[in-house]
Please model this.
Amino acid sequence: MALMPKRVKHRKSQRGRIKGEATRGNRVVFGDFGLQAVQGGWIPAATIEAGRIAAQQYLRAEGRLYIRVFPHKPITSIPLETRMGKGKGEPEYWAAVVKPGTVLFEIGGISEEAAKLCFSRLAHKMPVKVRFVRRREV
Model:
């Protein structure tokens, strides 16, 4: 089973609008390098899991991967060829709402070249545009 919350307050949520830029979760905190979203959107739980698997296969035993997003939003749809009415459809999958600037994944304990190669594999799987970022020392 893919990532999903254990329990939710409301089973079905409205679409909402992704506006503005991320003010939280927009810096590399846990690792040395990160993959940051350039545009907003929804990232399905299956896509996050696919990115995790691709990164773990590349990293093997060295380095540490941190996933910074979690799918909280249920995405619903009504089955095809269903008449009008009968309410909203059942939750089909869970997605993470991502604003521009959100750090999606982080890697620590490996060289910059290896991190760039690993994140280039992850970037192909993401439905939003992403970029490579480094940790800034404060």
